[in-house]
Predict the 3D structure of the following.
Amino acid sequence: MKRLQFMLTRVLQGLLAIVLIATVNFMLVRAAPGDPVSVLAGEAGASDPQFVAQLRTQFGLDQPITTQLATYLGKVVTLDLGFSYRQQQPVLKLIMDRLPATLLLTGSAFVLSLLFGVTLGALSARRAGTWVDSAITVVALIFYATPLYWLALMAVLVFTVQLAWLPGFGFSTVGSGLTGFALAWDIAQHLLLPALTLALFYMAVYARMTRAAMLDVAQMDFVKTARAKGVKPGRILRAHVLRNALLPVVTLAGIQAGGMIGGAVLTETVFAWPGIGRLMFDALLQRDYSLLLGSFLVTAAMAVLFNLITDLVYTLVDPRIEL
Amino acid sequence: MKSPFWRRFTRNKGAVAGMAVLLAVVVVALLGPWIATNDPWGMVQQPFLRPWTEPGFALGTDTLGRDILSGMIYGARISLLIGAVSTVVALLIGITLGAVAGYFGGLVDAALMRFTEIFQAVPSFALAIVLVAIFQPSVGSIVTAIAIVSWPPVARLVRSEFLTLRQRDFVQAALLAGQSTPRIILTQILPNAMSPIIVMASLMVATAILLESSLSFLGLGDPNQMSWGYMVGSARTVLRQAWWMALFPGLAIVLTVLALNLVGEGLSDGLNTRLDGRTK
Amino acid sequence: MSSAVNPTQPVLAIVDLSIALPTGADRALAVERASLSVLPGQTLCVVGESGSGKSMIANAVMGLLPRPHVAPVNGQILFEGTDLLTLTEPQMRELRGRRIGMIFQEPMTALNPVMRIGEQIGEVFDAHIKVPAAEKRRRILAALADVGLPDPELTIDSYPFRLSGGQRQRVMIACALVLEPVLLICDEPTTALDVTTQAQILKLIRELQQRRGTAVLFITHDFGVVSEIADQVVVMQTGQVVEAGAVRDVLDAPQHPYTRKLINAIPDGQAQRATPTDEVARVLQVQDLCKTYRSGNGLFKRGRSVQAAKDISFELKRGETLGLVGESGSGKSSVGRCLVGLAPFDSGRILFKGRNLSQGAAFRKEAAGKIQMVFQDPYASLNPRHKVGAAIAGGPIAQGVSKTEAMARALELLKLVGLGADAAQRYPHEFSGGQRQRIAIARALAMQPELLVADEPVSALDVSVQAQVLELFAQVREQFQLAMVFITHDLRVAGQMCDHIAVMQRGEVVEYGETHKVLGDPRHAYTRKLIEAVPRIASPPHHLTMAVA
């Protein structure tokens, strides 16, 4: 029952956050240099007077600002995110078409980064002070300092251009007509480089955090108690140190999720991965602000949802949270 | 010079190396216009000149025949400038909000924290893109955008420091002595909260540089400034022909950000002492 | 399993043990050529102040020293004849938990917060012997019942955060004793506990020891505890054993001057001062003070409320000292904070010199700095970034006194508290705990207060330093004719320092009166329980402790 209450509160908070972000979108359009209508119409649409007039009435741009806000929020709630003149499609449809690709990319990157990050971090902590630790720390530091887009470019350069091991562009081989398992394999091959590139930065983040958390926990009193009981080092590491060190890592994962979704923009751009990030990039190039803001709202909503999930996971993992 | 801070700092070899690299970059940035042999925008040679084939063009040229080395030198200036200024602005916002939230607690704290949380829930890079796109790219809008997405972690840190320090007995004693609130915040609490803030600041400059370069890569950089991100971005479509256009500016970013991170760790070592004399 | 117990063959014999500290520490050896032995079924107490090396010995026996920085460099640790220092780590692991058990000082952090109690005890089995699951559970339940935990069936599946400090300590004892080791090492296990809980835990350890014939090595700083449980005692000072022998011998006729100093420093609960003259003016009157803490009020959650103070009433005249005595959770600290205006109270009145003080910041303003406080933790009560002189002068300056006069006052006070004028230019970290408390007292005095509230000012100090600081309080009180409220959990300290005592339990004053009456003829059951629980040195006639009814 308490858990339900907690979920309800968090969902409400999430919805409030999304409404606030939508309001920010609204204010940004008004605050941009120039006429709000031309911002909403985008570069392409602004040249079509009929379209502009249509927008003006739709968004009630000649009405008081509070009514405008209400209209706008009303549209958001009904999932009407506007129309992209350039692409001649509703923004929502464009986004929904691309959403699965982004989810696939960020999902795999998230899993990869956590899995390898925590493992390497734990290994590093276990062998603290040895060459293994130094090597992992140095590698983590380097990846932590590397811009995502550059890493992506270098990956394409090495693995696609020079070595031709992996495809560097797109979701699947165009026009190949593959189905079923062969298609899945093809997609996997296309997914590997982008997912790995996106994961590497966050792998470094989780490795450093895990190492630090484990070294911290290893100093704590209850670890000494376990040693005084004669418990074997392997079990101490797993059941005492790691189990406690993972708590801050879970919290961190929630915080980093927003960053990963933002990073998808860069990865998708370089690898021509047909996701929302790529959509945002195109919208930028085309000065299609409706599409840009719509994509932004959806990515923000994804991040909020993800935070909610990690919060829930945290309450499951930490028994001290009374739910 | 051999104060305890420096002793601890220099014990971290990585931090010392980072400091050296950082100083080199700063020097290059400061002396920029005098050591660069060419105007970075000047189309002075044949396009796609490979590195180390022509004297004076050590790193080759790009699609329009511009000298890459000079571009990188000017890029250092803009990266450091934007990195430093946006960090300062983010610190000002974050410290103020965090101090107020942490000191006054209660409703003020709850309200400010909700506000901060919402900011943090939004993917910061996406927000930065939107801000810069809407307000048109310029040094000013980039600095503002980076500051706006970077202040929440500072605020959280300062808030938690203030919450802890507020309850410390020496602050209670200052209250009993009748010291005024601003005086307590500035002279009693803030000096004790500076160490983690300083460490965070160095890491923030690194993040700001990464953010700025990412924005430039996407074409959202200030069109009048040659920046490292822009250089890598312009290499994207001609990667096959001119790999060096992407490699060198990227390496510059990696080195600078790495140096900043290492210095940050050194600062953390150097400042992380128990000044109260208690053994750990 | 165990060899035939030879009553004269020690279970543990430490011979000439020296433990080195890393370079840069304040001395080269943490422990220097220490020797002791524990016979089966007997309790040996190692007594000393902080930094004496007593904990190091305990850790060394278990092989838990933080090597390589701190390591034994000389001597032997003979456990049942085998030198533990020659054993490998796997061999030591065999012994830990099985033949030698250990419990530590801080029960609140000694258990894994995300592991159930049953699993934490079960680990001991898993590490040493193979036992089927049902049998293991049965034995864990038995162990929990053995250490006096109520409702073992519930506890076995609970997480540590549900248990109090005393209960967690019992769980630790269960872990340590479940496989019936021959030696139990206790490293200050009751220091962090309330006095009544301490009494219970000591009783438990005694009982278990008698039932199973375990040898006990007990580390402590409290001679009262020594008197209650030890057969043999070893006194340590800066790493060296200065005295050793049977407990009665050492306590009745201490040979070494340090031992004598330690025993004499224990507050003996006798009011040593002359009763004050007929002052009529009441400095402080507290009437029906109430304070409730409310926490956790959220949108969908109901908050919890704890009544920290309920209808507290007392009065204080100039030159008098009131002791507020209670254990943790009694509300004494909350009342203290209300008295100085650092915490608001919900109802009731506080009258200072006849004037009713209002709430919050106005309280402090109206009191004009004449009510001051000395805090408990000497390491947190001074701003680490301010010089000592500035810290002391800061108060008067905030009240409008000129800078030169404030500094002059600061220097004078530093001399008064025994620190000398050159201390003013130094930073807090350059001083010891006791010295910092002196500085804190000087800071409070700089405001020329009429009421001084001392919140457990000596609890964090070593016993010998404690005696000095209490002396300073007495001196200062005489000199300035201060009214004092002395908050403490230690009845012995209260007995020595106070004219009147108010005993608090769960927010209420359960007994209030003159010291000798409260301590000599306690009426309330809780007061009696508190007095009973204080570890007393059972005395020969010339060394009086508190008179017991």
